[in-house]
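I am sending you the entry underneath: sequence plus fold tokens. Let me know what the token row says about the fold:
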Amino acid sequence: MPITLQSATTADAAELAALHTSVAEHLTNQHGVGPWSTKTSEKGVLLALRTSQVYVAREGSTIIATLRLATKKPWAIDPSYFTPTRRPLYLLAMAVTPAWQRQGIGRQCMGEVERLARAASATAIRLDAYNAPAGAGNFYAHCGYTEVGRVTYRNAPLIYYELLLPESRT
């Protein structure tokens, strides 16, 4: 099923909070309690909508995947690990509804992220993943992202990844 990312709206907040919480519960059931076990509130989603660009993928009217793109560095990212670049874009909070996982939705989302980044003249896409069995590091590596560092932030072991994009000549 081909997907297209659309901008989320405040009307999506409750459904997005439920999706993130469902993914957190799924990861906790599979891997035990960890930093991935946090429930997401509607208030948290509304904050994300104000501070970043939130995207959703839908099957009919149901949201099956989401992610955030931000130009502002998130708190858990140390830029000294990344290749210096003029306009990095940060990929945050990517989640696919458990029933839709392992069907190519995540990989399609990553293709859409790259398309959106290029359209925004970003020079890199940066992200972090948990350095744990519940983390998606292998997924990002298979999507062409390069590991650039490993850190522990607030007791959460993280792996940093980046994808460098060619700068436009305009």
Q: What stands out?
A: The chain has a mean pLDDT of 95. Residues 6-164 form a domain with the Aminopeptidase fold (CATH 3.40.630.30).
